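Person: Please work through this fold.
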Amino acid sequence: MKSRISGVLIAFAIVSSSAFGDSYGAFQTKRFYSQNRRFFVEVRENKRAVLYRNGRRLRKLWQRDLSDFPRKLMVTNDGTAIAIVDFYYGNNCRPDAPILMLFGPGGKELSRYLLRDIADLSRTIRTISMCYWYSDVKFAPDGKSLIVQSIVAKHDRSECRSRNAHSSRDEAEKMLEICLSTKPYQNLVFDMANGSLVSREKVAVN
């Protein structure tokens, strides 16, 4: 019993300092498919990205080198554009980390957005390697725009730290859950034709 309580309290101490641990396996070649499965991007261990038209015989449309491995990569149903969201090994909470990149025909980079451009860094949940700034990314039904919902921590860090006086297992577990909880922050809409941010709307949360 005592060891379990100590373990939870150690975990909470990590929460209070905003430094959770992350673990990632070595990146292996991955395929990221469009929703209709007609296209996919293959990302290789050398950071080479190749777009293919899927079918009985694969047709290579373009290839380019990436600056880093993608955490999430999305392909439009017509294969004309892709979106890369965050890094596979984490953004390290660097304000200047490019965490959203949009590419058009031929793999040409249309735009890139830095962490400080999109996230409220004073309110995000942090780990050793990541600021968790989004909860959902999807294309609009017509495929012409990308919709990203950003998130922030539900409770501020000072409130989490002030609860550290509790020592029981149940209280510590509850504190951990509270300090990890998030809420929607903004809906961001990007034009996939030119990569521009066309709207930024705050999400009302009761």
In short: The radius of gyration is 20 Å. Residues 2-202 form one domain. The helical segments are 2-16, 115-118, 157-162, 169-180. The mean pLDDT is 86.
